[in-house]
Amino acid sequence: MARQHLSDLVGKLLPRSFVGSYPRPTWFGYNLRGRDILQPFRDEDFAQAYRDGVRAMIGDREEAGPDVLADGHLWYDRHQGFIASFVLYNLERIQGIEISPTVELHNPLTEVADTPGMEALAEIVEAIFAADFTVTGRLRRGPMRHAFNWSLAQRRAARPVKAFFAAGPVEPSIFLTDRHHHDRKGLLRDPAEIYHAEMLDAVEAGARIAELDDLIYVAPRDERAFDVEILNRVFEGVGAYRIWHCCHGGTPGPIGLAPYRVLFP
Q1: pLDDT, one tens digit for every residue, the chain (265 residues)
Q2: In this structure, is the dihedral angle defined by the CA atoms of residues 106, 231, 224 and 73, taken in order, positive or negative?
Q3: Which of 241, 148, 254, 252 is nearest to 202 (CA)?
Q4: What 8-state DSSP symbol labels residue 52?
Q5: What count of Cα atoms within 13 Å lies in the side-chain half-sphere of residue 194?
Q6: Half-sphere exposure of residue 32: CA atoms within 13 angstroms, side-chain side
Q7: CB 148 within 8 Å of CB 37
Q8: Which residues contact 233 (CB under 8 A, 6 or more apart)?
């Protein structure tokens, strides 16, 4: 595949864009609650409000002037600790994961959330660990609908919209209890194929830019080389401008949270 440049896609030497969600309109009171988005779209009130919400979020960004837009993630539920949906959206829509209420809060990130400057992480980890996500069989593709989500946004935009795929596949794996593979590498291979298929569908739908957000530094250090293999598999053969984003911190965590120096190799 010939090397692509984002500047070639938008006609500017230094294209402006951004990463992340956008505040949902206050009047949009719906949540998917783990459902396939096509299900509530059968409800005219939901469908109309959703399309209007996406149009408003896209309009704000177009008015602000970035050259490359994002859809704003209105498909995220309004969980406590707002960014929890970044992890939960895909986990709720992958087959082979059994979701059940947490009997006893077992939060491996408690120490992180208790450190100075990281207090705001408490709401996020509480929202995520309010349920147990147990891998009970082979992980298979469910109704993630990333191509659909991207298409809805692009039809309401005059500028290119990046196709986003929420968190994964490495970062969400730390929230899973594996009762099937009993091997973290085995656990990650199936999600890599799932995300790969989602990307191919988005490109087939017309997306020219595909961005994956994944914090591979949360994985055990001796497995990071394997995690790079997983990310490469996700992007393999994807005929779009490919971006990997690894967050450097920000609300609610401090800037500089990511240990980029140890990731450079």
Answers
A1: 567 789 998 889 999 998 878 888 999 999 999 999 999 999 999 999 999 999 999 999 999 999 999 988 999 998 766 577 888 899 999 999 999 987 665 555 555 556 666 666 666 777 777 788 999 999 999 999 999 999 999 999 999 999 999 998 998 898 899 999 998 899 999 999 999 999 999 999 999 999 999 988 777 888 888 999 999 999 999 999 999 988 776 666 666 667 777 777 7
A2: negative
A3: 148
A4: H
A5: 26
A6: 24
A7: yes
A8: 192, 193, 196
CA dist 131 and 126 (Å) reads: 9
Token couple for 202: 């988005």
- Apex 35 CA angle, 170 and 131, nearest 5: 55
Backbone angles phi, psi at 127, to 5 degrees: -65, -40
Residue 71 near residue 145, CB atoms below 8 Å: no
Whole-model pTM above 0.85? yes
Q: Is 252 left (phi over 0), alpha (psi -120 to 50) or beta?
A: alpha
CATH of 6-263, one of 3.20.20.210, 3.40.50.2300, 3.90.550.10, 2.30.140.10: 3.20.20.210
